[in-house]
What we know:
With 381 residues, this protein is α+β, with helices and mostly antiparallel strands. The protein is 28% helix and 32% strand. The strands form three sheets. Strands 1, 2, 3, 4, 5, 6 and 7 form a seven-stranded antiparallel sheet that branches. It is globular.
Amino acid sequence: MSRNSELGTFIVGRRGTILGFDHAMETLTGWQAVDVVGKSATVPHAVLVDRGEMEVDASRRRLTLELACRDGRRLETTALSERLEGPGGRARITILAVLALSAAGGVRRRTKRRDALTSLGNAEAFREALEHDFAMLSSAGRTLALILADVDPPRQVNDSLERTAGDDILRKLASVLRVATPDESRAFRLEHDGFAIVLPGAGRGEARQLAATLRSIVEHYRFFAPAAPGPQVTLSLGAASFPADAERPSDLVARAALALDEARAMGGNRVCCYVRRPRVALEVPVFFDGAEALLVGFTRDLSPSGIFVHTAAPIDIGMRCALSFPLPGHDERVRVIGRVVRAVPPEDAALATRTPGMGVEFERFEGASDRRAIETFLRSE
């Protein structure tokens, strides 16, 4: 299970005493660590409501836990329990998803609704999950990615097959998504033949990688028996991420949809990621940000979602780094946290007549003024 999907983590002893409580749990429940560490997790007014699932019998297993928030609400969650080495029977409990919540007065509002055909969350569950994850992760300065997928071409499955056969295809597609998605509670069926995957903590690179894996699996999946062949079933997928591509949930959906439309327009059975424009040529020095500013290289271009840095020593794809660079007309250096999504080492550049360097996708701006400085500069060009 990918740690990208976690919403908070705490540690309990054999008898349910809370030994550790991280910042994400403070945000999720409203309790401060000082309020709960050293106390039982299952007594009244503590973090958890006793559901008989706190004793850990295996090194790793799933739990359903109900969290008691400080404001009186209750959160029904899925969690992963992992036994820790050492004395005391300690276990790390990682919250993976919120299934439902109740108001302080005790009236429960379901936030996870199922599609009758595929058993995935439906469109309403998708909207609620996206808004919840967006609020939680944006306040914590973390990323969020969204993948939208559709069967190629739209309605091909149900138009070319009997309804029962078409429904069977959609159920099999849902099984593929359920298995391949890091947290199956964040896979949803939308209208018609559409699906959505929400990836808390992921950036565009992780979304692109998962989408490519799904596309390949579906392309080679045997949906029909050899004695009764049917049409080729493939997926088009579009991805977008926060904060690189959008600042609101509705914008994230719209931009993932634009990427999906582009994948369809290019013939389908492919993955497209939304790319914010404009991309403006720019040459300024880029530094590793920190106590000692070290020169990385010089920019080639800049967009709202990232930069390409000319450097003879690109960092490995997937690495995250703190960078700073000056902008014309802006007094202070812009400071960002970025993820390397493209790397061209000198030897590859020599073979392909490309400039060595690395593409960096912005995942977090150190302050609101940094984002505004980039957008103001791009509008002025």
